[in-house]
Amino acid sequence: MIVKLVVNRMALMERQPSIVEECKQKFVPTFARSCLFWLPAQTVNFLLVPPKFRVVYVGSCAFAWVNILCWVKRQKLTGKTSNSSSPVSSSGSGGSTAAIAVSKSAGTP
């Protein structure tokens, strides 16, 4: 719920036209990251951290989590591709440049 609010509010403040699309694409991965981050963090908190240091520990974890949320928010939206067998990756990373370079060099003698 909070993840959805963060993504929607940030997109609204940035005046992005694709608020719903961004939420659809980022909610599930962000929720999974949340579970992978907070479940072990709270397990360590209650098993290993003395009670007098728990507030500091959870505050540090919350600071790290907010930075993770900022990183997720800054990730580019992936475009929907009509052809899933295309050699160009849809993530927009360096793999697409390599695929274009290979396709150009294959056509030269």
UniProtKB/TrEMBL annotation:
Pfam families: Mpv17_PMP22. It is found in: Membrane. Transmembrane segments: none annotated. Residues 78-109 are annotated as: Disordered. It is a multi-pass membrane protein. Residues 82-91 have a biased composition (Low complexity). Keywords: Membrane, Transmembrane, Transmembrane helix. GO terms for cellular component: membrane; mitochondrion. InterPro entries: Mpv17_PMP22 (IPR007248). Belongs to the peroxisomal membrane protein PXMP2/4 family. This is Mpv17-like protein. It comes from Culex quinquefasciatus (Southern house mosquito). The gene is 6052479.
